[in-house]
Request: fold
Amino acid sequence: MSGRQGIIVGISGASGAAIGLRIVELLADNPHYAVHLVVSPAAERTLSEEVGHDALARLRALAFRHYLHSDIGAAIASGSYPVAGMIVAPCSIRTLSAIAWGQLDNLLTRAADVQLKERRRLVLLVRESPLHLGHLRAMLQATEIGAIIAPPMPAFYLKPQSLDEVIDQIAARAINLLDLTKLRAPARTWSGPGGEGV
Reply:
């Protein structure tokens, strides 16, 4: 990776695929990081419907490497492969539950589990509302084993003027949760109550 730190970005089938795309764009724009991309089959459909038919191709072009969702033997499925952490954005309830209870039948959930066992940061942008008790229990279980649950909540106090600004803020916040010291700020920077910003 030519000295760049690897970061895994998983995109699952929940609504909000544009957030995952923006996270990849921000990371790919930084010379210190190399994005390893895993997109679930359901996410491929969501990307097409919510972002555009070329969204998956754009993502793959930005990534340092992309992997098939079914490729559980890929390098990022091993704890010996060095990466700085992982973001799943958006994170469906199905993916959350699989991670929480160790259902590791695909590369996305397997790579997430590896981050937990290696004590690396795993950020899950869980996208669902309203939540029933089963959802909350899955979030609790994931938190107890080391994941960071970060629902994609707009920072209304920043008075965003467009959907793009909302997406930028959520994506930047997710990246900040990885605690990456070399990541430079995107074109739009955010600051305000609560200490959010990049």
Observations:
- The domain at 5-176 is CATH 3.40.50.1950 (Rossmann fold).
